[in-house]
Amino acid sequence: MFNKNITIGILGGGQLGKMTLDVANKWGLKVNILDADINCPSSKFCNNFIQGDLMDYNSVMNFGNDVDIITIEIENVNVQALKDLEKKGKIVFPQPGIIETIQDKSLQKKFYLENEIPTSSFQIFKNITELKSFIISNKISFPFIWKASKMGYDGFGVKKVSNIEEVNQLKDCHCIIEELVDIKKELAVMVISSKSGEIKNYHTVEMEFNKNSNQVEYILSPANISEKLSLEAENLAVDLAKKLKIVGLLAVEMFLNSEGEILVNEVAPRPHNSYHFSIEGSYTSQFEQLLRSILGIPLGSTKTIQNSVMVNLVGDDGYSGPASYNHFDQIIGIEGVNPHIYGKFETRPNRKMGHVTIINRDLNKAKEIAKKIKETVTINSKK
Ligand code: ADP
Asked: Which residues of the chain have pLDDT under 50?
């Protein structure tokens, strides 16, 4: 399958695309990238960079016509174009119908319900007016979690709502509300399903969130939970991937609640922040697995080489403009420290600018180093 005449097209040129290109370049595979931003992290490292809007039908169609296999690194893409490219004989993984379901949180939740995947209870609303009418007639009580059905990411488009004033501040769009889960831990499992039918999964990891930004700050690999719970999460994720019949990667985000139950929160059909550690921490990285799965060649081992903690590096508050990374020299000499700089030209508050994976047999020690990195490295811009 290492056919030099095959060109892979990736929709999206962010850091996930860039890290996939690292593997493609190692293997001498041709990859084209489509992204609206000519300065995106992937543009300098691909075979052919095409500037275009991922949500625009013609841009995706024209891009897809020039490649053999199409995949994604972000789910907000024009699905109709992908369906039409498939009809024209192009290989599209993950399958467009699955991307369509995942793009919309209300369709995702319905899928879980219909396929007996444990998830928090929910209700779907056409708009805020409909939601308000349910509140006024006492069919809903506070507090609840509100989510915009589409285009949310990294916690944008998700709000805990405790009173009617907060309802009035919500964006008026198609939305869902969910029961507020008493979360003990947030977990993730990455499943890889190959075109050939082979399925593998990595072990369960734990996601720790920053309380202010509500973004993932640390990933602990493996999760600090019992073997039994870890296996339960992995089995649930594999079951979900099988029910979706997806080809490619499926990152399954889950909650462990205070009763010890595991509930699926949401999924992403692409490489995911929670498995960046697999570059140094596993036999095969998630990015290599993506290429293996869509090419239909045997999947790599998902075994762990060493325990690790990943820390996200985000733009400091109060700075927007050309990025400057500071004080890396103070942490780069520590054993097991692996920095990744995404090469985004501009920083913004909380924008993901890079990450560091710390390899250490002792997870507590790795976490200590990760915290030190977080305190030391700053990402800002000259004012
Ligand atoms: P996004 O797609 O923006 O990442 P998520 O659906 O993952 O949004 O929600 C973001 C975060 O909000 C979750 O990681 C979790 O901390 C919190 N959250 C989401 N749903 C619930 C819920 N039903 N109960 C409690 N907290 C929730």
From this structure: none
